[in-house]
Design brief:
seven-stranded mixed beta sheet, alpha/beta, about 375 residues, 11 helices, about 25% strand, 16 strands, five-stranded mixed beta sheet
């Protein structure tokens, strides 16, 4: 994937620490659909779940009534938003969820495997168009094509920079490179591009495209402001934090800065929206959730800055400051990416300075 290697795919694009917010309400708290069983959520919107191995457990996907779209044929059309991992259990759940309906369009919020995994399979199977943001589509195309016997040297260098030992790096070398392609079906050569501010008519609803960043480069959210609903993907999750990691594809980027800017931007949306997240339950309380996500990261940055005042630190030296749980092999890649993103944000803010010694990044308070 785009962030540092993590062996547990269920944790590869999500934070592993809960960041609970007060002020949220869950109208469906006592209910969750079974895999592939579609639950009517609102007029023209169906909700089902697909399995995700490991602690993440599931992804929510959405089926939107879309009669007569694009092909102009029939009244049983359904547009799909997000697609699950390309694994047999997901394909079985989709067959149950779709039944005899005509899939009109396939929308993907961002390139991560639990969202884009079945997209190619669904579009080819049903002759439907794939709708994605261009950057997210290109990321998915790139990563499905990048399969190697050994990890690239840049990946190893970034682990060295973070402070990994050779003993910790050895299993990464042995695994090869290309886990992304193992759970993502080949994507079509073309897509319909979704851009910030686009208004997309799906059935009886108009959805406006909002773009967030930080979790991925240009994550799409779909907002039906008139109907009071937001399909949020991973941009706003109710009970866990979205992973924000410094990526191998942009090692001098500032993903946490992008994430905080996106939080500020999304506050312009009505706080009354029913938020449909990719994981967890639909909820009300968008502004309270955004506030808590922002506060959590700002508090982490302040703790980290104080930690750097005592002595220069590597990313691996910061786990105890940023995370409440012990970091083992299963989540070391995830924790490293998040620590690097926080250190990089302090550097961009001018609160930290980076020194490089023997390929290792040492950060000290400015």
């Amino acid at each position: 994937m785009a962030s540092l290697p993590a062996p547990d795919i269920s944790l590869a694009d999500h934070g592993f620490e809960p960041l609970v917010a007060k002020g949220l309400s869950y109208p469906f708290a006592s209910f969750a659909p079974e895999y592939g069983v579609v639950h009517p959520l609102a007029d023209g919107i169906g909700w089902t779940r697909l399995p995700v191995p490991g602690s993440l457990n599931h992804i929510n996907v959405w089926l939107l009534d879309d009669p007569g779209s694009e092909s102009g044929a029939g009244d049983d059309g359904v547009a799909i938003v997000d697609t699950g991992l390309y694994i047999p259990a997901s394909k079985d759940a989709w067959r149950l969820a779709i039944g005899e309906r005509r899939v009109s369009r396939v929308f993907v919020t961002h390139f991560h495997p639990d969202h884009a995994g079945c997209a190619g399979w669904l579009t080819y199977k049903h002759g439907a168009r794939l709708w994605m943001n261009r950057t997210e589509w290109l990321m998915a195309r790139m990563l499905t094509a990048d399969v190697r016997d050994a990890p690239p040297e840049e990946a190893i260098a970034q682990l060295v920079a973070a402070g990994w030992s050779e003993e910790q790096i050895a299993p990464v070398r042995e695994r090869g490179w290309g886990m992304f392609a193992s759970v993502v079906s080949p994507l079509p050569l073309g897509h319909v591009r979704m851009r910030e501010g686009d208004v997309i008519r799906i059935g009886a609803r108009d959805w406006t495209v909002w773009i967030g960043s930080g979790h991925t480069p240009e994550h799409v959210c779909l907002v039906d402001e008139a109907g009071g609903i937001m399909i949020a993907g991973d941009q706003v999750l109710p009970r866990i934090t979205s992973n924000v990691s410094l990526s191998l594809s942009e090692p001098e980027g500032d993903p946490l800065g992008d994430w905080l800017a996106s939080i500020a931007k999304f506050r312009a949306l009505p706080g009354s929206l029913l938020v449909l997240p990719a994981h967890g339950e639909p909820f009300h309380g968008l502004h309270a959730r955004l506030d808590r996500l922002e506060t959590g990261h700002l508090e982490s940055l302040d703790r980290l800055h104080a930690h750097l005042k005592a002595a220069p630190r590597r990313a691996v030296d910061c786990f105890g400051i940023l995370f409440k749980r012990a970091i083992d092999d299963s989540i070391r890649g995830l924790a490293t990416g998040e620590a690097m993103a926080h250190l990089r944000r302090l550097e961009v803010e001018g609160r930290a300075v980076r020194d490089v010694r023997d390929g290792v990044w040492w950060f000290r308070a400015a």
